[in-house]
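Ticket #4471: structure output looks truncated?

Reporter: J.K.
Steps to reproduce: submitted the chain below (97 residues) through the standard prediction queue, then opened the result file.
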Amino acid sequence: MLSNQPLGEVVQRVTREVKHSAELAAVRGREIVAQLREKPELHALIQNLSGEADRNALAEAGATRARTFTNMPRSADRAGSPPRCAVSATSPGSKGY
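Returned output as attached by the reporter:
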């Protein structure tokens, strides 16, 4: 059947079939996830997994921030260096925030 067709046509046909199958699988997968979300038994599990991911992301952001500030040199640590910020809460014309 496919052996009598040029290779380019065979590749195009197979590509179309694979794309179509992938689209059907994606639609069915979304349907299954929607059905699972409606089940009360799994709702708590989904919430816990979601919360865990958020907590992990927050912990990683905090660790990154800590590493960044730990590695930054402080102006007070270097004798004779100017302050990092020219405007402070006590500078004339500042609004204090």
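Triage note (M.O.): checked the attachment and the full token line is present. DSSP finds two helices and no strands in the chain.
Status: closed, working as intended.
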